[in-house]
Design goal:
globular; 7-stranded antiparallel beta sheet; Transglutaminase-like; 2 domains; 5-stranded antiparallel beta sheet; alpha+beta; C8orf32 fold; Immunoglobulin-like
C-alpha cells in the first residue's frame, strides 16, 4: 500500500525571533516492510543551514537553522511511502513471559546483540519510571507462566477497553501514574502506560512514533488536516524481534501504520523541537494528512 503524507507544523510567536535551531524527526524510516520513496521540504522562513543525520536509535533527523527575523515558523514535509505486510507473527507462541525475561538476561551474558540492544528499552527513561502500581496493573495480564504474546495482547486490549481517549486531560508532561489513576488520555499516554507496565516486569518495550491511516464516517469526505501523528508500542520477543501493538485502538500494527521512528519514550522522537532567541509566547498548529494512493 502506498501513502502520501502531508505534515504541516506552524509556530506563531507573540514577538519577533531572531534565530532558531531545530531538529525534525518527520521522515519515515526505511525498514524491511517500509520504503520511503520521496520527501519534499518547505520551510518558512528559509533556513540558512540544513542537513540530515541518523540518531542513536537509527531515526532520521533533519537539522535546520533560521537566522532571519521572523514572527512565525512553518515546516511542511510531504512524503510518499510504500508499506508491505509486517513479518508473520506465528513462531513464538510457546514462550512464557518469565522465560522471555530469563532469555534476555542469558542473551546478554552470551553477547547476543539483539538482547543487548533490547536491554536499553527495559530501563527507566525521562517519561517512564518504575512504580509498584504499574507492576500490579501489569500482573493482571501477566499471570504466572502466562504465554508472552497472550499476555501482551491482553494488556493491549485492557488499555483499549478500560481507558477513555480524551485529548483535554493530559499534556506531554503528564506522569504515567496519573494516566493509570484517571484512565483517560491520548495515544502518547497509552503507549507510555503500556511500556511502563512491561518494563516493570523486566520486558523491553519501545515507543514508536508515526502515522496511521484514518477513514471518515461512511458517506462523508475526509477533511484536510484531520489526521495526526500517532504513537504505539513495540515489545521485544527473544529470538523473533519486535511485536508492534497499539493500545489506543486495541490492535496490532499492520499496513495502515507508518513508522517515523522509535525510542525509549516520546522525548526521543519528538517530531519537531528546537531553541530560539526572542519570540515570546507561541501558538502551535499541526495538520496531518495520510492518503492512500
Amino acid at each position: 500500500m502506498k501513502y502520501q503524507i502531508r505534515h504541516l507544523t506552524r509556530y506563531d510567536y507573540s514577538g519577533q525571533a531572531t534565530l532558531s535551531h531545530n531538529e525534525a524527526r518527520m521522515l519515515p524510516r526505511n525498514l524491511p516492510w517500509q520504503f520511503n520513496l520521496s520527501n519534499q521540504w518547505q520551510i518558512t522562513p528559509a533556513p540558512v543551514r540544513m542537513r540530515e543525520r541518523t540518531d542513536f536509535f537509527g531515526n532520521r533527523v533533519v537539522y535546520f537553522a533560521t537566522e532571519t527575523i521572523h514572527d512565525s515558523l512553518e515546516v511542511l514535509v510531504q512524503s510518499e511511502v510504500d508499506i508491505q505486510p509486517r513479518p508473520v507473527q506465528d513462531i513464538f507462541s510457546s514462550i512464557s513471559w518469565e522465560a522471555a525475561v530469563s532469555e534476555i538476561k542469558a542473551g546478554m551474558i552470551r553477547g547476543d546483540e539483539e538482547c543487548i540492544e533490547a536491554r536499553l528499552f527495559a530501563l527507566e527513561s525521562p517519561f517512564i519510571r518504575h512504580q509498584h502500581s504499574l507492576l500490579e496493573f501489569a500482573h493482571e495480564s501477566f499471570s504466572v507462566s502466562c504465554d508472552l504474546v497472550t499476555a501482551l495482547t491482553d494488556l493491549n486490549q485492557r488499555i483499549f477497553t478500560d481507558f477513555t481517549y480524551d485529548p483535554d486531560v493530559t499534556t506531554v508532561a503528564t506522569p504515567v501514574h496519573e494516566v493509570l489513576a484517571d484512565k483517560r488520555g491520548v495515544c502518547q499516554d497509552f503507549a507510555h502506560l503500556m511500556i511502563a507496565s512491561l518494563r516493570t516486569l523486566g520486558l523491553p518495550a519501545r515507543y514508536v512514533s508515526g502515522y496511521m491511516e484514518t477513514l471518515p464516517p461512511p458517506g462523508q469526505s475526509k477533511l484536510l488536516g484531520a489526521d495526526a501523528t500517532h504513537a504505539w508500542v513495540a515489545a521485544f520477543i527473544p529470538g523473533w524481534g519486535w511485536l508492534e501493538l497499539d493500545p489506543t485502538n486495541g490492535c496490532m500494527a499492520d499496513e495502515r501504520y507508518i513508522v517515523l521512528g522509535w525510542g525509549r519514550d516520546y522525548a526521543d522522537v519528538t517530531p519537531l523541537k528546537g531553541v530560539m532567541t526572542g519570540g515570546g509566547e507561541h501558538e502551535l498548529t499541526v495538520a496531518v494528512d495520510v492518503v492512500g494512493v
